[in-house]
Design goal:
alpha+beta; single chain; 9 strands; two-stranded antiparallel ribbon
């Protein structure tokens, strides 16, 4: 759980460019009560899984949520989820529908034997290891309409931000600590 000074600093960094949309990709398996909170706070959101889901699958599915700087849902995610591996943030000029289509392509991958597996790229512990291993073509595909990914570091006092630049992946560590 992040204190108010950390939450404020995170909010400033995520929403520093008002013309850009900020999205959270949240892991229902890591966020107790996510569906209830989505229902009560009513942010714009969509599930990344296709079709009608059984209730137990809907509870643990990944969700793409458009965040507003001063919304109660944003406050809740930053305050309770930072440091708890709830998900990652994506900054984009794109709209929710386009980002959903983009991210859905990555929820399932094949292992070397061709077996389909869930790819939990929306877990910050996965993304911060995965991105540096990507080739330039893989980065271009994975970033697509996303300008920047932001996520907690192993040390939740730091935010990591990743950009796909012509010279390759750019990684920036930003202090999320108060002060």
């Amino acid at each position: 759980m992040a204190d108010e000074a950390v939450v404020q600093k995170l909010r400033e960094r995520l929403f520093e460019a008002p013309e850009r949309n900020v999205y959270a990709l949240l892991d229902g398996a890591s966020v107790d009560g996510l569906l209830g909170r989505l229902g009560s706070d009513r942010p714009e959101y969509v599930c990344l899984y296709r079709g009608e889901l059984e209730p137990d699958i809907a509870e643990v599915a990944p969700y793409l949520v458009r965040l507003e700087p001063d919304a109660p849902f944003t406050q809740w995610v930053l305050e309770k989820g930072w440091g708890a591996h709830w998900g990652i943030f994506a900054v984009s000029l794109g709209v929710l529908r386009d980002l959903r289509q983009h991210f859905r392509r990555f929820t399932m991958v094949r292992d070397p034997d061709g077996k389909q597996l869930y790819f939990r790229f929306y877990d910050p512990r996965v993304l911060r290891v995965f991105l540096p291993t990507c080739t330039p073509d893989e980065l271009a595909e994975f970033f697509g309409p996303v300008m920047c990914y932001a996520l907690e570091d192993e040390d939740p006092k730091r935010m990591l931000r990743f950009w796909n630049k012509p010279e390759g992946l750019r990684r920036e560590e930003v202090s999320a600590a108060a002060g």
